[in-house]
Design a protein that fits this description.
The complex is a heterodimer of chains A (about 400) and B (about 130). Chain A is α/β, with parallel strands linked by helices and about 400 residues long. Chain A is built from 16 helices and twelve strands. Chain A has a seven-stranded mixed β-sheet, sandwiched between helices. A three-stranded antiparallel β-sheet of chain A has the order 9-10-12. In chain A, helix 11 crosses helix 15. The two termini of chain A are about 30 Å apart. Chain B is of the alpha+beta class and about 130 residues long. Chain B has a single domain, classed as Sufe protein. Chain: A. In chain B, about 45% of the residues lie in helices and about 20% in strands. In chain B, strands 1-2-3 form a three-stranded antiparallel β-sheet. In chain B, strand 2 and strand 3 form a beta hairpin. The longest helix of chain B has 21 residues. The N and C termini of chain B lie far apart (about 45 Å). Chains A and B meet through helix 11, helix 12 and helix 16 of A and helix 1, strand 2, strand 3 and helix 2 of B. Bound molecules: pyridoxal-5'-phosphate and zinc ion. The site of zinc ion (ZN) has 8 residues of chain B, from helix 2.
């Protein structure tokens, strides 16, 4: 059995995305900036894709900037707000403790540049409170940035409520929607979002392509200078094939969203129920307010990397927020933020289902995880101390 | 490109000498849950020889494989040899470890030293002799 259960890391390109790519590699490989008609056909492909992507999130085509992915989009969004803030003498940003590093590291850079950032805590449910956002906004706040859905624990944030608050208070609002777009309904107008980041490889498009939505009226800062592409907002010859594939993937994801979400939610809950049978384990993040594909657990007494490698031997691709998998000494900042202590956070497992997942696969994963957790606990000194009463169970 | 050598994976999948020695002559533990690797080593000592050794490890594959290899290297060996075991020797015996995983093999070396220290604490007369 081979089961890919790491769809939050990346997804398999859809057949539609691959098919959409081919013509712009094999036949129409011209430069979209060229004046001759062959080049203009490539240009047309980019603009058709832009319109499709815009439609899928309720935006206008000119509000979409194609980028190299989620990280670049996050960087550009934050620097855009910083540039606008600087001009207005506003140097305060509101964010939260569970953002992706593409946001956190950019914020850290801005802090060095004289910005002040408020990192809102999240509840043990992994959800940012809209009221806390409201309370954190000051006279000099130039940006609120809160992710749509978390990549580790899958919690979906109250983006519409936060958008409403930001609009009312006149503060720019950016959301990193990399894990949400193509999976849950995202509408930039309904959610009152000013900027939104997305990445194609998370919704069965290609790697290295993404987009940033920037609401009309907000002037984007440029990260990459050098050409007039993307209306001067992002230089560089367009990744035509990748952009065409992004639109095709998103169109398909949007069309099948309701059906996929219903199916995955049922499988997700089956997987959660199965893993919850493991003693001294706990689901990370709210049970209901989460992405349809995301299952994240902590198991007491074991370490995540060992868990992953043993699951790999059993044909399961998964991920963990343990320190040893990241090469740092600290476990995931997200798990720590929801109140998991180090001991427990090291024993984390993330399984993120793909739309072709089956009940049989879910049941296989449940029994595999049970087996591996038991095996690792069998030679864990931490587990021995817990069982013998020398230390106390946390979960 | 594999993350670990075949040797590491072999020791990770089939760790040697896992378990506990009841009434061990020396027990050593290092690491803490904060850093993510904890190792406990149990020694049975006859005369000057480590006649049996067992370990328990909470940690990554590198930590498990290092514990396993380290116990193999000292089992049946004199205490003086076990004391001289370095994490470098453990890593070499495993056909190398990724640079950022070397710290996990240090724990094996330290756990053994702690276990021997524990043995000397319980048997001061042996400690004198060994000096
Ligand atoms: C929430 C979130 N933001 C940003 C990114 C970065 O996206 P990309 O890999 O396209 O740069 C990821 C992907 O890991 C993500 O999950
Ligand atoms: Zn380690």
């Amino acid at each position: 059995m081979f089961i890919y259960a790491d769809n939050a890391a990346t997804t398999k390109m859809s057949a539609a995305a691959i098919a959409a790519m081919r013509p712009y590699i094999e036949d129409c490989w011209y430069n979209p900036s060229s004046l001759y008609s062959a080049g203009q056909r490539a240009k047309e492909a980019v603009e058709t894709a832009r319109a499709e992507v815009a439609r899928c999130i309720g935006a206008e085509p000119r509000e979409i900037i194609f980028t190299s992915g989620g990280s670049e989009s996050d960087n550009q969004a934050l620097l855009t707000a910083a540039e606008i803030g600087r001009k207005a003498g506003k140097r305060h940003i509101v964010s939260d403790a569970i953002e992706h590093h593409a946001v956190l590291h950019t914020l850290a850079k801005l802090e060095k540049d004289g910005f002040e950032v408020t990192y809102l805590p999240v509840g043990t449910d992994g959800v940012v409170r809209a009221a806390a956002v409201e309370a954190a906004i000051r006279e000099d706040t130039c940006l609120v940035t809160v992710m749509y859905a978390n990549n580790e624990i899958g919690t979906v944030q109250p983006i519409g409520e936060i958008g409403e608050i930001c609009r009312r208070r006149g503060v720019l609002f950016h959301t990193d929607a990399v894990q949400a777009v193509g999976h849950v309904p995202v509408d930039v107008c309904a959610d009152k979002v000013d900027m939104l980041s997305a990445s194609a490889h998370k919704f069965r498009g290609p790697k290295g392509v993404g987009f940033l939505y920037v609401r009309r009226g907000v002037k984007p800062a440029t990260l990459i200078e050098g050409g007039a592409q993307e209306s001067g907002r992002r230089a560089g010859t367009e990744n035509v094939a990748g952009i065409a594939a992004t639109a095709a993937a998103l169109k398909e994801a949007a069309a099948n969203m309701a059906a996929n979400a219903a199916k995955l939610t049922a499988l997700r809950d089956r997987l959660i129920a199965g893993l919850a049978e493991i003693p001294h384990s706990a689901l990370n993040g709210d049970a209901k307010r989460r992405l349809p594909s995301n299952v994240s657990f902590c198991f007491e007494g074991i370490e995540g990397e060992s868990l992953l490698l043993m699951l790999d031997d059993m044909g399961i691709c998964a991920s963990s927020g343990s320190a040893c998998t990241s090469g740092s000494l600290d476990p995931s900042h997200v798990l720590l933020a929801i109140g998991r202590v180090h001991d427990v956070a090291h024993g984390s497992l993330r399984l993120t289902l793909g739309e072709d997942a089956t009940e049989e696969e879910v049941d296989y994963m449940i029994s595999a995880v049970k087996e591996v957790v038991e095996r690792l606990r069998g030679f864990s000194p931490v587990w021995r101390d817990l069982v013998s009463g020398k230390s106390e169970f946390i979960l | 490109m594999a993350l670990y050598s075949e040797k590491v994976m072999d020791h990770f999948r089939n760790p040697r000498n896992v378990g506990v020695i009841e009434n061990a002559d020396g027990v050593g533990e290092v690491g803490n849950a904060k850093c993510g690797d904890i190792m406990r080593i149990y020694l049975k000592i006859d005369g000057d020889i480590i006649s049996d050794v067992k370990f328990e490890t909470f940690g990554c594959a590198s930590a498990v494989a290092s514990s396993s290899m380290a116990t193999e290297l000292i089992k049946g060996r004199p205490l003086s040899e076990a004391k001289a075991l370095t994490n470098k020797a453990v890593a070499e015996a495993l056909d190398g470890l990724p640079a950022y995983k070397m710290h996990c093999s240090v724990l094996a070396e330290e756990a053994i030293l702690n276990a021997i220290g524990d043995y000397y604490t319980k048997h001061p007369e042996k400690a004198d002799k060994s000096r």
